[in-house]
Amino acid sequence: MIKFGTDGYRAIIGKDFTFDIVEKIAQAQAESLKERKAKKVVVGYDTRFLSEDFAFTVAEVFSSNGFEVVVSKGSCTTPALSYAVKHLQADEGVMITASHNGYKYNGYKIKGGYGGPATVEIIKDVESKIDKTPVLKGKKDFQILDFTSNYLEKLKSYFDYSIFRQKEVKLIHDPMFATSIGLFNRLLEDTFVDVIEINHFKDPYFGGHHPEPIDKNLSLLKAKVVATEADLGIANDGDSDRVGLVSESGEFISTQILYALLLLHTVRNRKFKGSVVKTVSTTYLADRIAKKEGLPIHKTPVGFKYVADIMLKETVAFGGEESGGYGFGFHIPERDGILSGMLLLEMVMLYGKPITEIIKDMFKEFGEAYYKREDLKVEGSQGLDLVKSLRDKDIKEFAGLKVKEKDTTDGVKLIFEDDSWLLFRASGTEPVLRIYAETPSLKTTEDLINEAKKLI
């Protein structure tokens, strides 16, 4: 059975991600769109093995079903594809990508006409139609367009470029061998920002690492920042909807801290007001900032599609999740790692101080926060069983901390009296239990994680 996860369908190429399966998904999406009287679809793809071939297979199926089809000229980022869906006034889009997964994987993401993740209802409708009608093929009538240039021009329109001409700054960018290669150079040409790229050629093996901008995958970026005395380092994942940040001292900055920094920058410096949206696994700093700024806050299950859903219903200043994917109310309802990187650079230049100093100032105002997550392989349904048992228990205390609230939005989250929290989430697709914790002390965070692991 073909089932979509939190962000599209992903599987191993040649096993559960084949041309036959891609054709079936495309046909099911075409049937769903025909019921909604839709007429136009855009298709993009990343730099993975066979992504271009899969994309043109999708385009052929839609063309054969009578749709107007526009395909990206070359590989593109997911945010560029999502912007193209809205900019070209298409009904839906398809992005062939497995995002941050390893090189063996590929994936199929569906984007709504508003330029963001398809709703849960649309995904369920597409799933229900898979294998219900014969796949139509044979017609290859589609237009090829450069999605990236239009997208970059849109990003440029959000900035007063004089900020990037105030002083010389050195930025190291790590596109992780993928879709963001060259984009910061193009965005920052004719400025005082010296962009140095590493890992800047297309490699479908991603240099032997997952193209995920997390600490363990950014050793070269950290070393390069220190060696060249750069001001900051920015990394983007395989399809560039996530961002990672390295400080001037070569330290990886937690994605939870990035959430708080970007939220503050959006509502204070850019003065864009609206509600705040966070997933259940996101920092308590979001709540404190929203309270001080007088902004309503929404909490959702893990997955940006839930964040995007609220962005479609009301004015949202900022929304995101702990994975490093952030969306902005003045942009499309989509995670955008390139825009996030540009905003972090803007923030550093605006304050005129290192990112570590900006973080210290934030901690001084809102309190310190130290986050850790561990993904544990478990036997069979062990993870799901543990989460169920915790959901049913009345827990007053854990690891010496008094529990003030238990949140079962997605998994089981224990919230303590000082806003510290511990979250248990079991994967529904693999035998993995995810444990997250955030407290005002790094030692306490580590102690919480260790106590939680004893329950396995």
Automatic annotation (TrEMBL):
Entry cofactors: Mg(2+)
Keywords (A to Z) from UniProt: Isomerase, Magnesium, Metal-binding, Phosphoprotein
Top-rank taxon, per record: Bacteria
SUPFAM superfamilies in alphabetical order: Phosphoglucomutase, C-terminal domain (SSF55957), Phosphoglucomutase, first 3 domains (SSF53738)
Pfam families the record matches: PGM_PMM_I, PGM_PMM_II, PGM_PMM_III, PGM_PMM_IV
Family: Belongs to the phosphohexose mutase family.
GO-annotated biological processes: carbohydrate metabolic process; purine ribonucleoside salvage
GO molecular function: metal ion binding; phosphopentomutase activity
Domain Alpha-D-phosphohexomutase alpha/beta/alpha: residue ranges: 2-132, 150-250, 260-366
Name this protein carries in UniProt: Phosphoglucomutase/phosphomannomutase family protein
Residue span(s) of domain Alpha-D-phosphohexomutase C-terminal: 393-451
